[in-house]
Design brief:
2 domains
Length: about 190
């Protein structure tokens, strides 16, 4: 494979990135080719030493999506980062997707409990409207207590969601470093 083919494949594989970032990466690789040619290497030797353009693109896309998820924490950015890291290898399907599903389930369950407790007084009022003879003071106090507990759970889930999101992004970065070539102790 020559320089032009390598750069075209890399450009094609990086289509999900912005044009400026893609151009910066391609310029870096063109410079790498220029340095290699000055050292007396052929284009074929340089492309062999660089590796597959598809694998390079997967690594770069994973890093790009992780950085994007860290700067702008949205559900879409996190999901794109998870899929990009999973794309680095089949082994990551088990290592990344399992914890991701577990964390999303825990967060979803916590929010569902908090919100359902908060709306319990509303459900109590609806019950009184449809069945006026079923009013009991005990049920009123229980629903008010559940509403207060639901507020505490919702506040806790806000902080837990934020902390779990940051922790999972750190886990993804660790996983990317591990896949790219192991952890290096400096």
């Amino acid at each position: 494979m020559n320089k032009q083919q390598f750069l075209m494949e890399l450009d094609r594989a990086l289509q999900k990135m912005s044009l400026d970032e893609r151009q910066d990466i391609l310029n870096d690789f063109e410079e790498h080719f220029a340095v290699g040619l000055e050292e007396g290497k052929t284009e074929g030797e340089i492309t062999c030493s660089l590796g597959s353009p598809q694998q390079i693109a997967k690594d770069m896309l994973a890093s790009y999506h992780l950085e994007k998820a860290e700067t702008t924490v949205t559900t879409g950015n996190i999901i794109r980062a998870v899929w990009a890291v999973i794309g680095l290898g089949f082994f990551n399907l088990v290592i990344v997707l399992g914890p991701f599903i577990a964390l999303v389930s825990i967060v979803f369950a916590g929010w569902a409990v908090g919100v359902s407790f908060i709306v319990s007084p509303l459900l109590f009022l609806i019950n009184i409207i449809f069945y006026p003879g079923s009013f009991e003071l005990f049920e009123l106090f229980i629903t008010l207590a559940l509403c207060g507990l639901g507020l505490f759970i919702a506040i806790g889930m806000f902080f837990a969601t934020r902390t779990l999101t940051q922790g999972f992004l750190r886990y993804l970065k660790f996983n990317v470093k591990l896949v790219k070539g192991g952890l290096k102790h400096d």
